[in-house]
Write the structure tokens for this entry.
Amino acid sequence: MATMTIAKAINEGLRAALAQDPRTLLMGEDIGDLGGVYRVTDGLKKEFGALRVVDTPLAESGIIGTAIGLALRGYRPVCEIQFDGFVFPGLNQIPTQLAKLRTRSDGMLSAPVVIRIPYGGGIGSGEHHPESPEALFAHTAGLRIITPSNAQDAYWMIQQAITCEDPVIVFEPKRRYWLKGEVDTSAPAVDPFSAQVLRRGTDATVVAYGPLVPVALAAAAAAEEDGRSIEVIDLRSISPIDFDTVTESVARTGRLVVAHEAPTFGGIGGELAARISERAFLSLEAPVLRVGGFHMPYPVARVEEHYLPDIDRILEALDRAFAY
Amino acid sequence: MSGSRLPTAEFEAEDMVRSAQIAEAGLVPEPEMLQVLAPDGVLSANLSAEVAGSVVDFSPYLSSTDPAHLRSLYRDMFLLRRFDQESTALQRQGQLALWVPLTGQEGAQIGSGRALEQQDYAFPTYREHGVALTRGVELTEILRLFRGVTNGGWDPREKNFHLYTLVLAAQSLHAVGYAMGMQRDQLSDPALPPAATIAYFGDGASSEGDVHESMVFAASFDAPVVFFCQNNQWAISVPSTVQTRVPLARRAEGYGFPGVRVDGNDVLAVEAVTRWALEHARSGRGPVLIEAYTYRMSAHTTADDPTKYRLTQDEQEWRPRDPLLRLETHLRSQGLADETFFEGLTQEARTLAADLRAGVLAMTGPDLADRFAMVYAEPHPLVQEELQLFRDYEAGFADEGTRD
């Protein structure tokens, strides 16, 4: 057991993956000597060399496209996209190539590419730096999408993404990079594509992922003071979604609130609302409610605290669910 | 090229483009264009040009001018053209959804494809039927895609020939990444035969950002890749003069690696220049850009109508430069192939077309249920659930006879 930040846990996970398999490569902008703008790859170039930790030209399509070529040659490339909004210059390669290679080849080819994307707001950043574009990718068959919310998961999930035969996008909650937690490097890893119940409750379920997991837990603690027992689920995987765990929970609690930073329209919360209404309609005491971003481009930093879902927004949604 | 290029009206812009195109088409080949077999069938001994500041002699890279070799090149191109005609016919008869003809580009494709070694790896667009042939892909396999029974058609790992890429230019980055992998393999196992990739694209796709990024990456890492641009003059209806203000080969200078323009309708020159470029790449000296100057003698696809955007005169001017014609002229004038050879070839092409047709008509679509297993390599609960739903739904019709 060691205490480390999420950033350090990913760093350690990458180090373990690089040490374990010589086919593993890291590629991205400024990930070498600098160690990445968030220092997630700090020290790795020094340890593994420039052929394994590759500072690339500033070109996201180039990073992802060459990673696909390397994967076709048998390598395991892990791409770092510097910020969420910077994935868009590389977007063509993801749905048209990476996600479809397996189907196009009638199952003959795999493209085990990992794309790491720091995402989400709350750090006072400028435009294109605080976004949550996960739903865009979740809609694309052929991709897997995971997002850790704590150091233990961060350490293991990055390694599981690298060994997965499918392309995996790892959305990293950038405002939680410095959140410390216990990491057990010898513990058997939990299935990265499963959700985890972090807090047991009986009256309502709150599902969150990535940066909003600590917010959901805090909201549950606050609700407890009002005598409400809230179950909190960390979704962990956005594609596939572990609907079984959520369904089982809602069958017991009867209420569901889904929280994410991304805009609610067309988002993961909507998908959960639909699936849960299909699977647990008769268990529901209230409609599934969503707490998320508004249908607007992410606002300027000075007002982001009003935009981002916080404890009160989740509590307000719970109030509505209970009042229904 | 002086003063403002801004047209004052739309028709003037069209005129400008068209006249530039016509002027270019009517010109003798530009000085830097490499050629050994002239349109009149005369074979020249000289094949050298200035590349990146020094004179390169490509003649050592010429394959044998042995008659048997020349005849085999002609045979490939001849059969390919018959393949193209039969595929067009199959599309017209509703047996293929679409066909992408390559008539006019046989020299560029057979020449470059023949230059590849077994360990090299090619990344095609969707028109590289000739390169496919040189890599051992069965011609019927190519038609599976256009028949709509697969989006692939062959095992790329077996042929060292990647699947067709329809979002053009995306494959140029895959070629660079693959080459970066070859580079690493070579470092960890020097006993491996040196290898390179070849990225095919056209004058149209040369405008795509991915081509730019692939050249930047290739140059940065000295990746063993040859960029093979078939400039067939037209990106569907837009002439190459809209894509570029300089000969495409010259773009390489900006990236810091050699670029050469070769007569794409001269199969011998293409083969030699590509062989040189591959050796350059394999020996660790970095990428090369080849612009194979050619002409799309047919439509972009069977859904296209070139009469709406280009002049018959334009097409006629290119006809004498046909890659097959000039090799045929050479073979006949030098007495390297007799009538029996040409008649035999016609017969062989007829058989090929008949086999092709039979093969296409026998192709049946896959079962949709099987497609569920091809989305992910590892088990995926949503896909499994939806497969079950689909099967249950289909099973509901079991008592109602056949649905189709």
